[in-house]
Amino acid sequence: MYYNRQVKLERKVSPPLEGAGGRNTRLISLILLLIANIFLTNCYQKNVQKLTVNDAAHPALLQTQQIQLSTPNIQVDSLLFIKSARVSLDFTLLETEIYYTLNNEKPQKYDAPFDIQKSTNIRVQARKSGFQNSDWIETTLIKVNNKTQHANIEVKPEAHENYPATGATSLIDLQKGTLNFRAGQFWSGFQAEEVVVRLNFEGMTEVEKIYLSLLSDHNSWIFLPKQIEVWNEEELLGAIDLNEPKAAEKSALKSIAVNITPNKYKELIIKILNHKNIPDWHAGKGTPPWFFMDEIFVE
Ligand SMILES: [Ca+2]
User: pTM surpassing 0.90?
Assistant: First the structure.
């Protein structure tokens, strides 16, 4: 039954042709028909694939709702400032709203550039109706002071010979590196499981927070550490645990803040504990990650 129907269909689509060379022409048209069939089947399959995407109940919304906005731009003159810093946020797509938080407070809608007077963590997100919100992008602006100006600094173990910066004092010289860690002598690179920094102030110094300025560059096997602890002699003053990344992230300059018991200190010991191995999802799994630092700020 099925076979007969197919024959009938073929006869309709491809009627016998008359005249000399009719057999050849028929052969050519059969080939053409075959090509056309393959082409149509391919198109049909592609359409089917598109339609099998989830949320078929709202096909009209499908196209934009599946597009995630890219992150907005954060524009600042410098990540370090003395008195105040101006922050501008922008996003090129029209009618996109930008939301931001300062030091993890409630998100607010951005409408004009603003100034900050103290060290601030800024997180920014783009939102537009019908699109997925962008990821949050963040940066930390740091108000510098002279607390470490005459401090002594000792780092153990020393930075790797390939990435020594200009020695331990480069960690308190108020000079920051860029994402291009090979440019200049700004970044100290370590491949040790634990790095201990002893910071000896000139006199008793009021401290409530330490910022470590670090690099995250997964392509170059550079990861943030696992944990940072701040000690005074035998007393733990503050610590922070950092989550191991679940997937490769965009390279970024990171400032990690560690709140400590506010007091006057003569010496602080910063213990940086590194991950033992690069995570399993990374090509470098099973080997120790790099850890890069260019500055330590005391507040
Ligand atoms: Ca530096």
Answer: no
